[in-house]
Amino acid sequence: MNRVAQLGFAAKGLVAIMIGALALRLALGSGGGDLAGPGDALREFFSQPFGWFILAVIALGLWAHALWKLAQALLDPERKGTSLTALAERIAFFVTALGYAALGIAAVQLLFGYRVAGTTSPQELAALLLTPHVGRWATGLVGVIIVVSGVLQIRFGLTAGFRHVLRLDEMGATARTAVALIGGAGYLALGVISLIIGYFLIRVALLYDPTQARGWGQALGFLADLRYGRWALGVVAAGLICYGLYFIFLILYRVEIY
Fold first, then answer.
1. Less Cβ crowding at N or C end of the chain, within 10 Å?
2. Is the pLDDT reported for residue 245 higher than 50?
3. Measuring CA to CA, which residue among 141, 155, 144, 224 is closest to residue 190?
4. Is pLDDT of 195 > 70?
5. Which pLDDT belongs to residue 91?
6. What is the pTM of this model?
7. Quick one: which of 95, 97, 26, 111 has its CA closest to 62?
8. DSSP secondary structure, 53-67, as one string
């Protein structure tokens, strides 16, 4: 499971770095087009030299991350427990597992020449699955859980609460400072994105309209449309790059699960 988690961290980190880099390019005025979500990041990887190989490895990593998130949700290897906050996190892990499995399928479709429409995200998938079959209140509950996750992620970023999963004793002083700054900025950016996406999912429930679901690209676009939106987009984009780099640190220094 440790090896599965490491492979998933690598894939998730690379996708986050690509999304952040594309958004930062737009924020700096050096790029055109729409803001990128996970599906757009896959297409960008595929367009690079040896893109088929890169995408194949990322697809495997995305499925590995889906498996890891499923284990977090069902087996609770990190001993989060059954408190209300822990249950909210574990439900969010399960929803995320579905999204990363779907994203892995999208990567394979690209490899075989199929067009991946739009952006695939865990939140969009949840809305499309839950609203017609389970109901608007279940979808709204997922939205509330994602908002709560966003608040917890911002708290993690501000307090560097993620450090307990790192083998800090094996890191030098410079590396410890770097991972605290990178991880903090990354979790703050992720928390902002989660708050926006959770808000959109709550709108799905209120309007009973799955098409109101939005993913990462649309959440970044929401930021860009705000007053001083280019600055807000640039800051969050830089944070997403930091979030991806933090997952590279996890590959090297994460405390083993078992």
1. C
2. yes
3. 155
4. yes
5. 81
6. 0.82
7. 97
8. HHHHHHHHHHHHHHH
